[in-house]
Design brief:
14 helices, alpha/beta, Aspartate Aminotransferase, domain 2, Aspartate Aminotransferase, domain 1, 7-stranded mixed beta sheet
């Protein structure tokens, strides 16, 4: 499924022939067997971190129970088994993104480290004072701060593409920002605070026509739709494992192989070298060049298992199911004059942010928690978005494949409880 059709998925299955058996999916997630404050757990914070299926948990447990050793170093059986599983995960993730080569897949701690790596290594090497980097007004802090640091270090110019009142990007305005000075564009695929699906393929084409490289923050996209880096044409793509039903502390940077070969190391240490003397060091080829030290072995293996699990369910089915649930939630909240939805773009995925008149979001979250409902409240690491819409924070309900319309019904019931307490 193309990134621009996530929200356009047909809702005809709703209430009649659901594309996913949510009850069956939930059985794969042990966390849903417990009650929270005596209530069924309704988890609506997957945009922050998704829950983990048993298949991922078991892969991590198996790693430590029967095959743990350091990778790429030992000649003994356990090291060979661990290396085989570790390298297999890199292959799986490369296929998941349709990367031409697994050598273009760099393991990092998360998308944040991936963006910092690119800003430091590529930006620090190839961007010069006066060069322009373009981001958008809907970015997560992790796609703002690294470029500000580079600006302060090297004197680049950071330009911000505005967003419309519905939270979407105006491609004509975006195109007018690009110039011969634009050398890099770094933009989200799906906005974490708004749910807006950004037309990243068009943005890649426009940026490349201007002579700029493109990084896409795919944290909120990869759990919800198929991503094909070759079709997108991006130069870099990052995501975090913990949002893709995988473990925390592991993430992925995809980068075109020719760029990785041009980039200097981000960190120094073991396994990223070819040879070391006190006089000089020569570096390993990518991706090892960017993976200094002992890696997160179990994390990489767990992320491979998460990719296997998501693909076994089917991203097309996940997208269709979540589109139905998001559409239902939007319909339920849109008819209320006491609720303001923040982010109403026509093409959205997985996220519903809102304000309740007269009630602070933190109070909303606290009261919902008493009903067993987990939502996120705050600025969602996107303070410029809050400033753009004139609010200090929002309540955000975000979906995973395990959410159904029953979760939205529970949310609506919880919001009624909020209104009762504040009337």
């Amino acid at each position: 499924m193309k990134e621009n059709s996530i929200r356009e998925t047909s809702l005809e299955h709703a209430g009649r022939n659901p594309v996913l058996d949510v009850d069956s999916v939930r059985k794969d997630f042990p966390i849903f067997t417990q009650a929270v404050r005596g209530e069924r757990l309704v988890f609506l914070d997957s945009a922050a971190s998704a829950q983990k299926p048993l298949q991922v948990i078991q892969s991590i447990s198996e790693c430590y129970e029967s095959q743990y050793a350091n990778v790429h170093r030992g000649v003994y059986w356990l090291s060979e088994k661990a290396t085989e599983a570790f390298d297999a995960s890199r292959e799986k993730i490369g296929a998941f993104l349709n990367s031409p080569s697994s050598s273009e897949i760099v393991f990092v701690r998360g998308a944040t480290e991936g963006i910092n790596l690119v800003a430091s290594s590529y930006g620090g090497t190839f961007l010069q004072p006066g060069d322009e980097v373009v981001i958008s007004h809907m970015e997560h802090h992790s796609n703002i701060v690294p470029w500000q640091i580079l600006r302060d270090q090297k004197g680049i110019v950071l330009k911000v593409a505005p967003i419309r009142d519905d939270g979407s990007i105006d491609l004509e305005v975006f195109g007018n920002i690009l110039s011969s000075k634009t050398k890099f564009v770094s933009i989200t695929h799906v906005a974490n605070a708004l749910g807006t699906v950004v037309p990243v393929k068009e943005i890649c084409d426009m940026a490349h026509s201007a002579g700029a490289r493109v990084l896409i923050d795919g944290c909120q996209a990869v759990p919800h739709c198929e991503v094909d880096v070759q079709k997108l044409g991006c130069d870099f793509y990052v995501f975090s494992g913990h949002k893709l039903y995988g473990p925390s502390g592991i993430g992925v940077l995809y980068a075109k192989e020719e760029l990785l070969h041009q980039m200097p190391p981000y960190q120094g240490g073991g396994d990223m070298i070819e040879s070391v003397t006190f006089e000089r060091t020569s570096y390993a080829d990518p991706p090892q060049r960017f993976e200094a030290g002992t890696p997160n072995i179990s994390g990489a293996i767990g992320l491979g298992a998460a990719v296997d699990y998501v693909r076994s369910i089917g991203l097309d089915k996940i997208a269709a199911h979540e589109a139905d649930v998001l559409g239902y939630a939007t319909e339920c909240l849109s008819g209320r004059n006491d609720i303001r939805i923040i982010g109403t773009a026509a093409n959205k995925a997985s996220v519903l942010s809102f304000m309740i008149e007269g009630v602070h979001p933190h109070d909303v979250g606290t009261i919902l928690d008493q009903e067993g409902i987990a939502v996120r409240t705050g600025h969602h690491c996107a303070q410029p978005v809050m400033d753009r819409f004139g609010v200090p924070s929002t309540t955000r309900a975000s979906l995973g494949m395990y959410n159904g319309r029953d979760d939205i019904d529970a949310l609506i019931g919880g919001l009624e409880r909020v209104k009762e307490l504040f009337n």
